[in-house]
């Protein structure tokens, strides 16, 4: 044991000072001055990367002109939950516009082999009790989640309200009619009393701006637009089209980790181009135990979901109901949250975190046979700097003779040529190059959503949010009456995103239906309420910001270069369950405090 090392509860020597230095070195290797500017959108010469492989390219319909009560933009879980809850409250005049050819959102687009949810299905898939459905496995594959989206849409009769393969382009407030005028890429002209924008998180794919990327002459696609026509197979793998192909994949985040084992077993040869290794913990997936389903009592899903969000969100719960690798991280690093032991001092938390990460590195050693490859696969950063990954076949893929890890040592791919990928001066010729390079995350709202929103007095949302979002509770903005955004920015942020979406949907639907009941024509936050909430977010997030600034770059910390706009994207610091409570309390007040209402018949 070195002089600076300390024994830990599981008897691992941790040299805190040395590891701190190593974390800092790894972070510095990965820092780039262009930060977020290193990525490029799927536009112009990259527009083909955004092509929808699941939709009928010949699809045509007549443009629609209509007056409706509520327009929902987006048919993922956010739109489904909002639509479903509106239907439950008897709202019939509803339209849902969705870019894809069906409901599903994330699960419509992400159908890559191995795609599965990294949060337990029993708490992730919403409305299981209402639908009388229990998923087949703890961590079901994408296809089952996608099917669940369709079941929700059927159950709430949302299909007749849906326009698919349609993109909203412009949403403009019409002061004279106190309604939104909504235009689409299919020339629709919809007049809506309320607009709810559920365009999703991590839904706009991004490509790395690697020099020469556009010159690659082989086949290339992004994981969220998987080209099964080329690879063969399906979500379970068996990619027969790759049997004679040399394949490269860039990216080893949650997506890369899930799909690499399938590429490894199908491709003639696979090169994995890694910039930062992910932490890859145990998955332990299993079919749903019939005894578990028999044990469930009414209200079980809410209880289990709240319990998970409480623990993983930093609160205290006397029992850990889910007991998986997510809650294990928390149990290991901050045990007080589940067993009630006294608050640990920050040094003890740091030591526990380093121990947990060391165990993750030891897992690599235990699985990967080649020592140099194992070394390159070990993550050195604070556990919460990047989204943790969980997989039981990923690491073993590197034991296959047809798989090579090309570690770029934090630098990323150097160049792409017509033949392949260049790292450290060496070219790797490829037939196929797959980008598992992620999605935009809380950048410019209007750009990500692909639409221009114009509020009162002709002001655009992009202008009003130039410095970052300004909202009350993350979903309403002054100057944009009857307009709601569903997001985690300035709201509760939880590992289980659908939980937060559900709470926001409930609240948005409450506001809309209360207004309908009481004859309120327009509603929006007062300037003061908005300013106060923004201040709550900005001041509350200081601790988190300092933590993220010390992290290795990634989308969590805006690639290590947070500017004011990013700061305004912060979350409610009291935690996701405190946010849920805040919304519950707020809905209980019939005055809807913080909102200014204008009643029908009064002058604009
Ligand atoms: P992520 O988590 O953003 O991962 C993107 C990956 O792409 C990550 O490993 C990046 O390395 C890598 N990347 C990006 N640019 C480059 C270059 N230039 N060279 C090499 N590697 C590069 O996206 P995912 O799709 O995996 O996951 C998205 C979310 O879906 C996830 O968080 C879950 O919530 C579900 P980096 O780590 O930045 O060094």
Write down the overall geometry.
globular
State the CATH architecture of the domain at 65-204 and 441-531 and 570-599: 3-Layer(bba) Sandwich
Q: What kind of assembly state do the chains in view correspond to?
A: single chain
In terms of per-residue confidence, which ranges show pLDDT below 50 for 5 or more consecutive residues?
1-8
Compute the CA-based radius of gyration: 24 Å
Looking at CATH, the homologous superfamily of the domain at 65-204 and 441-531 and 570-599 is: FAD/NAD(P)-binding domain
Proportion of residues in helical segments: 25-40%
Q: Which small-molecule species are bound to the chains here?
A: ligand NA7
Distance between the termini: 74 Å
Q: What's the mean pLDDT score? A: 92
Describe this structure as you would to a colleague.
With 604 residues, the protein is an alpha/beta fold. Among the domains are: 65-204 and 441-531 and 570-599, FAD/NAD(P)-binding domain (3-Layer(bba) Sandwich), CATH 3.50.50.60; 205-278 and 386-438, FAD/NAD(P)-binding domain. The strands form seven sheets. Strands 4, 5, 6, 7, 8, 9, 21 and 22 form an eight-stranded mixed β-sheet that branches. The chain has a five-stranded parallel β-sheet with strand order 11-20-12-13-16, covered by helices on one side. Strand 1 (5-6) and strand 2 form a beta hairpin. It is globular and about 75 Å long. Residues 1-8 have low confidence and may be disordered.
Short description:
With 604 residues, the chain is α/β, with parallel strands linked by helices.
List keywords for this structure.
604 residues; FAD/NAD(P)-binding domain; eight-stranded mixed beta sheet; 21 helices; binds ligand NA7
């Amino acid at each position: 044991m070195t002089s600076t090392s300390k024994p830990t509860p599981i008897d691992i020597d941790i040299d805190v000072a040395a590891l701190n230095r190593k974390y800092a070195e790894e972070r510095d290797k990965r820092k780039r001055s262009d930060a977020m500017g290193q990525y490029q959108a799927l536009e112009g010469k990259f527009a083909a990367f955004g092509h929808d492989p699941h939709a009928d390219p010949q699809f045509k319909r007549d443009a629609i002109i209509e007056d409706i009560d509520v327009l929902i933009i987006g048919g993922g879980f956010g739109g489904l939950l909002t639509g479903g809850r509106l239907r439950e409250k008897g709202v019939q005049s509803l339209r849902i516009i969705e870019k894809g050819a069906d409901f599903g959102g994330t699960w419509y687009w992400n159908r890559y082999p191995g795609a599965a949810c990294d949060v337990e299905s029993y708490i992730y898939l919403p409305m299981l009790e209402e639908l009388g459905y229990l998923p087949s496995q703890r961590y079901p594959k994408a296809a089952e989640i996608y099917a669940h989206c369709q079941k929700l849409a059927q159950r709430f009769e949302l299909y007749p309200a849906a326009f698919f393969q349609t993109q909203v382009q412009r949403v403009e407030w019409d002061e004279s009619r106190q309604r939104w005028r909504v235009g689409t890429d299919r020339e629709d002209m919809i007049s809506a009393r309320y607009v709810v924008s559920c365009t999703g998180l991590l839904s706009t794919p991004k490509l790395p701006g690697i020099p020469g990327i556009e010159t690659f002459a082989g086949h290339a696609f992004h994981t969220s637009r998987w080209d099964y026509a080329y690879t063969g197979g399906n979500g379970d793998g068996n990619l027969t089209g790759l049997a004679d192909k040399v394949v490269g994949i860039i990216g080893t985040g949650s997506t890369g980790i899930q799909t690499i084992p399938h590429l490894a077993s199908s491709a003639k040869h696979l090169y994995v181009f890694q910039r930062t290794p992910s932490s890859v913990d145990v998955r332990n997936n299993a079919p749903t135990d019939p005894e578990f389903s028999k044990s469930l009592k009414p209200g079980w899903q809410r209880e289990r979901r709240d319990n998970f969000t409480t623990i993983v969100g930093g609160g205290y719960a006397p029992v850990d109901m889910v007991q998986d690798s997510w809650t294990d991280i928390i149990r290991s690093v901050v045990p007080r949250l589940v067993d009630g032991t006294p608050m640990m001092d920050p040094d003890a938390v740091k030591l526990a975190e380093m121990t947990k990460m060391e165990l993750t590195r030891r897992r690599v050693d235990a699985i990967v046979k080649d020592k140099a490859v194992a070394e390159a696969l070990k993550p050195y950063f604070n556990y919460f700097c990047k989204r943790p990954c969980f997989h039981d076949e990923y690491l073993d893929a590197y034991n296959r003779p047809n798989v090579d890890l090309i570690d770029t040592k934090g630098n990323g791919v150097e160049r792409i040529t017509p033949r392949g990928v260049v790292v450290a001066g060496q070219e790797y010729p490829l037939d196929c190059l797959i980008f598992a390079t992620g999605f935009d995350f809380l950048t410019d709202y209007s750009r990500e959503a692909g639409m221009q929103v114009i509020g009162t007095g002709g002001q655009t949302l992009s202008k009003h949010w130039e410095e970052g979002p300004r909202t009350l509770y993350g979903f309403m903005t002054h100057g944009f009456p009857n307009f709601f955004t569903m997001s985690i920015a300035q709201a509760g942020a939880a590992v289980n995103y659908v939980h937060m979406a559900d709470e926001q949907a409930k609240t948005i639907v409450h506001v809309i239906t209360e207004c309908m009941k009481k004859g309120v024509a327009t509603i929006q936050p007062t300037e003061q309420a908005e300013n106060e909430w923004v201040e709550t977010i900005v001041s509350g997030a200081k601790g988190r910001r300092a933590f993220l600034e010390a992290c290795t770059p990634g989308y969590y910390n805006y690639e290590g270069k947070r500017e004011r706009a990013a700061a305004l994207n912060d979350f409610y610091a009291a935690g996701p369950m405190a946010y849920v409570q805040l919304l519950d309390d707020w809905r209980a007040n019939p005055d809807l405090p913080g909102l200014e209402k204008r009643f029908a018949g009064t002058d604009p």
